[in-house]
Amino acid sequence: MLYSGRKTVWANTRKWFASKWNMFDAFNYALFIITIILRMMLTGKQFDIVRYFYSFTVAMFSLRSLQNFLVDKNIGPKVIMIRKMVIDLVIFLSILAVFLFSIGVIYQASLFPNSPATPKLLESIIYIPYWQLFGEITLGYLEGDDIDNCTRDENIWRPAGGVGRCPEHKPFVPFLGGVYMFLTNILLVNLLIAMFSNTFQEIQDRSERIWKFYLFNIIREFSERPVVAPPFIILIHIYRVVRYVFGGENGKKEEPNEF
């Protein structure tokens, strides 16, 4: 009997985590608990970390409300499209990372040779190629022009970990930068648009069937939930635990599920 009870609890736990929304809830709850703990521990200037966690927690709980749009016939499929497109975006970023790191290493090795190995070095490799994706050309930087308040004195920039160093002048770097922006802003971005268009069309062709499927899941999920809203829902859970522990459900005939 004990084994059967454990098996039931494990099966219900697996069933609960099978839903992506429930996994998102678990993440939000864990994030909220961490935020509360940090709120009680950190003070002074470190309290900014708590503000970041609070704002991120509010943002995550706001995104959680997207599930409510699934019941709408017009908006529901769009939410599914967003989820599918995020998967496409992750695949695209894995391809983009190859181009980004490649040109970033060229920039760093050419414009700032013999830079000290510091955590700032990795940021420098990614920084310029990343913003070039959004049209920030930084042509003067690529041509080796002096940046405001920069120095070419190694005795100054090396102890500072390479911070404030002026870029070297290398004629082929602007050309490589143009090739990189051509490939990323024209080729890869259009590839991403094509992936999004394909995903949109796939969902749009089956929008009504997909909407009915998710609508059914939401109705079934909410039919199994307690009527009481949070935070008073904890009282229902306590009642269920007490009833389960003291055998209130033993021998109880299970009502047929209309779903």
Automatic annotation (TrEMBL):
Keyword Plastid assigned: no
Localization of this protein: Membrane
Membrane topology per record: Multi-pass membrane protein
InterPro entries: Ion_trans_dom, TRPC_channel, TRPM
PANTHER family, A to Z: TRANSIENT RECEPTOR POTENTIAL CATION CHANNEL SUBFAMILY M MEMBER-LIKE 2, TRANSIENT RECEPTOR POTENTIAL CATION CHANNEL, SUBFAMILY M, MEMBER 6
Cellular component, GO annotation: plasma membrane
Alphabetical keyword list: Ion channel, Ion transport, Membrane, Transmembrane, Transmembrane helix, Transport
Chain coiled-coil ranges: none
Spans traversing the lipid bilayer: 21-43, 49-66, 86-107, 179-200
GO MF: ligand-gated calcium channel activity
Residues annotated as domain Ion transport: 13-207
Name this polypeptide is given: Ion transport domain-containing protein
